[in-house]
From TrEMBL:
<dbReference type="Pfam" id="PF12773">
    <property type="entry name" value="DZR"/>
</dbReference>
<feature type="region of interest" description="Disordered">
    <location>
        <begin position="1"/>
        <end position="25"/>
    </location>
</feature>
<dbReference type="InterPro" id="IPR001932">
    <property type="entry name" value="PPM-type_phosphatase-like_dom"/>
</dbReference>
<dbReference type="InterPro" id="IPR025874">
    <property type="entry name" value="DZR"/>
</dbReference>
<dbReference type="Pfam" id="PF13672">
    <property type="entry name" value="PP2C_2"/>
</dbReference>
<feature type="domain" description="PPM-type phosphatase">
    <location>
        <begin position="135"/>
        <end position="393"/>
    </location>
</feature>
<dbReference type="InterPro" id="IPR036457">
    <property type="entry name" value="PPM-type-like_dom_sf"/>
</dbReference>
<feature type="region of interest" description="Disordered">
    <location>
        <begin position="70"/>
        <end position="96"/>
    </location>
</feature>
<protein>
    <submittedName>
        <fullName>Serine/threonine protein phosphatase PrpC</fullName>
    </submittedName>
</protein>
Length: 404
């Protein structure tokens, strides 16, 4: 097994386990900082809010703070490669500019792209992660919402099919501050699940033990995510309607996949051939109606369709994820997504057809496939934030362990 590299975003417990996606622009969980001689608070140029010295985005309005990274003249380099570090060699006299996420052009001082004319997006509005060549995802604000309350966090072993964690959280849009809740929850859960890999390697991996261990770990990840929300939102936790989010997670440990869910973000098994399946069960009004005999089309098109019955947050009635272990057969994809994607294509077989069509056009790179799925959802209207995270799952013949 190749050596595994840790990331400062993933908490100390995960050190030395798997390599999470590098994302310097969105980093909020940091290692102990070297004390600066003069830590000066950062004033937001848009709204005037005073932010912490190391803040990357304004806590009040979300505007990007601090230095901007110089962009290459090559349009293809507009989106930073996943895992790329900021260019420390940039001269202080070189007038650094941000890259346009649409075309790779330079963002002018007025906040619009000099090449295509579109307004700049912050990295919180749109970003991608690729912790390994076989795992990747894209998180996007969509078209209709002013801010991106979706979040994701990914981690993976470089060896395809060995080990991966994919977590997607969707902030509840009716509660201000849910963008902070979702990001904190996704990162905390991924950190805890990634740390479990070390236990897996140490204790062995018989079927019953692995399923039990990862099921317990998934429940603990929900608890860690909830605790991270409390810490991230501070005094907002005391509100009548505090920030909250959904939770969908998948752990891939060789042939075993363990999924967990709270709310209506989902995990799907997208088979290359044969039957695709939704692996999680929604906590929602529409799911309850379908359980009582209403058709999927009727339930998911009703006005109350996206009313969730469980969530993560200070006022949650039950934060424990529903956990399901499974052994997919054949080759395919594990897809973790928010309702911004599945709302336009809910049925597993229909979603599989969409994924197959996209793969036929752009190839099997998980980030490119995720990006195309996000683009497709925006073409359907982009009514919500959209997140798609994928892991390639090649054919594995699973032989159950025999009792000693």
């Amino acid at each position: 097994m190749d050596p595994l590299v840790s990331d400062p975003r993933i908490e100390a417990a995960a050190e030395g386990t798997v390599e999470p996606a590098a994302d310097p622009t969105l980093d909020t969980v940091s290692e102990p900082a070297v004390e600066a001689e003069a830590a000066v608070p950062v004033l937001c140029p848009a709204c005037g809010t005073v932010n912490d010295p190391d803040a990357k985005f304004c806590e009040e309005c979300g505007t990007q703070l601090g230095e901007l990274v110089e962009v290459s003249s090559d349009p293809d380099s507009g989106d930073d490669e996943a895992g790329a570090e900021p260019n420390e060699s940039t001269s202080s006299t070189s007038a650094p500019r941000r890259a346009c996420v649409y075309c790779g052009g330079s963002i002018a001082e007025d906040g619009y792209c000099e090449l295509c004319g579109k307004p700049a997006q912050s990295e919180r509005d749109h970003w991608q992660e690729a912790p390994a060549a076989w795992v990747g995802g894209v998180c996007d604000r969509g078209i209709r919402h002013d801010i991106n309350e979706d979040a994701m966090a990914l981690a993976a072993d470089p060896q395809a099919g060995e080990f991966a964690v994919l977590v997607v959280c969707d902030g509840v849009s009716s509660t201000p501050g849910s963008d902070k809740a979702s990001l904190a929850a996704a990162r905390a859960a991924t950190a805890h699940l990634a740390a479990g890999r070390q236990i897996d390697v140490t204790e062995g991996n018989d079927d019953e033990l692995a399923q039990s261990r990862w099921s317990d770990r998934m429940l603990e990840a929900g608890e860690r995510a909830s605790a991270a929300i409390y810490e991230a939102i501070g005094e907002l936790a005391a509100r009548t309607n505090p920030p909250s989010c959904t939770f969908a997670a998948a752990v891939i440990d060789g042939p075993l996949v363990v999924v967990g869910g709270v709310g209506d973000s989902r995990v799907y098994w997208i088979a290359d051939s044969g039957k695709s399946r939704q692996l999680t069960t929604d906590d929602s009004w529409s799911q309850e109606m379908m359980a009582h005999g209403m058709s999927r089309q009727q339930a998911e098109s009703a006005p109350q369709a996206h009313s969730i019955t469980r969530w993560l947050g200070a006022d949650s009635p039950d934060e424990a994820p529903h956990v399901v272990p499974t052994y997919p057969t054949g080759a395919g994809w594990i897809l973790v997504c928010s309702d911004g994607l599945w709302n336009y294509c809910s049925d597993a077989d229909d979603l599989a057809e969409l994924v197959h069509r996209v793969v036929g056009m752009v190839g099997s790179n998980p980030v490119q496939v995720s990006s195309s799925l996000v683009d497709w959802a925006n073409e359907q209207g982009g009514q919500d934030n959209i997140t798609a995270a994928l892991a390639r799952f090649d054919s594995v013949v699973h032989t159950p362990a025999q009792p000693a």
